[in-house]
Please model this.
Amino acid sequence: MTEQEFLKNYNSSDYEKPSVAVDIALFTIRDNQLQVLLKKRNTHPFVNMLALPATFVGMDETLDECAQRALYQKTGLQNIYLEQLYTWGEIDRDPRMRIISVSYYALVPDSQIQLSESEQEAKFYPVDEIKTLAFDHEKIIAYGRERIRNKINYTDIAFSLVPEEFTLPQLQKIYEILLNQKLYKANFRKKIADKIQPTEKMLSGNKHRPSRIYKKK
Amino acid sequence: MTEQEFLKNYNSSDYEKPSVAVDIALFTIRDNQLQVLLKKRNTHPFVNMLALPATFVGMDETLDECAQRALYQKTGLQNIYLEQLYTWGEIDRDPRMRIISVSYYALVPDSQIQLSESEQEAKFYPVDEIKTLAFDHEKIIAYGRERIRNKINYTDIAFSLVPEEFTLPQLQKIYEILLNQKLYKANFRKKIADKIQPTEKMLSGNKHRPSRIYKKK
DNA sequence: ATACTAAGTAGTAATTTAATACTAACTTAA
DNA sequence: TTAAGTTAGTATTAAATTACTACTTAGTAT
Model:
């Protein structure tokens, strides 16, 4: 049998298949807290409960494309940090049917968020104050938070949570919130020194010495 | 509409679905090299090329269960370190049809490997010597290797690659191979001191001073 | 016995992290 | 207009970790 013949005879609908969905945990830091985007469900199952934005995977899109599409449709956001997290395959995680969920997490600076009218239902909630969510979405958020906490030490993902121009106290605060610990100012600055470049601008207006504004190198 | 009614009316076969498979990268360290289990394919597509062990996900098993089953069926191994790696969703990664692959990686001590007759076709190949593989399996292996390299620094996964009883030179060699760098003996020992416990046994037979045998604490 | 080899330990220099304290530059209120 | 309050930013030092060298130890081989 040649490869041609083989492929022609292959019938992919011979076996029952699970559905595949993408769930997205969009994180930001607002009011000095890690927050995540949630929306109240208006259909069964878990009607009226908060859930992560989600969508089914189309046959004509990759998983990354699907995640980007979902994020864009639900928030209007494009070109923000987006990374696959974990794939959840418990049999009864959705009471309708077998759904395998590929979860993603995304990071966006608070300043960049502009939810339009139609997206008003979706809101950010402080991760620490979240109680029960639909499906296994609490686990997804916890897993995402853990991933961020690990990756912040050996990648630049923290910069995805500040605007293009930022001060060092702002950046340090991001690290402190994600790591959940206080850092030493001088040491922090030494550590990130090679990743940033100063601008001529200063941020004043507070009742204390203004801080210099930096950009990512 | 109540939840009961909703679920009854819900028809999950309304939409076309991708297939979902699990691919497994089983790593070991043999001959001072990181090696991975591969098997020559005997069907289309990619016939006669080397590929990772894989299986389709059954409707009655979770992803983790599926991975465990695949591993057991292909190698007879049970109760070894197994962790989900990444889910691959390129549209044309399989020419037969849309297949989403949830990849796992597993770690086993070389000493524990006993491939039976029927599994003879599957063999370990040094990761550094692998050329072209079927599907996107090279990417999976590279991703797995990277995950291990990161996780070895903040978890105990290295112990999954040595037998229950091991010497410190053996353990250090595992770290050096995975990190691809030489480590300092004294420092290494300080670092892992709280994770190990000495036994009374020594490993001799080499033409030099014998080394003490340790266990994981 | 002596040489050879890797195991294991000691010690020290260099670097990083922990901690404290200071000076600088703004706002506010006396 | 001056002093107090506040945070920005720098300096300094102690403690801990990592980098590196060198030694002692306990086997095997000749």
User: Anything to note?
Assistant: The mean pLDDT of chain A is 92.
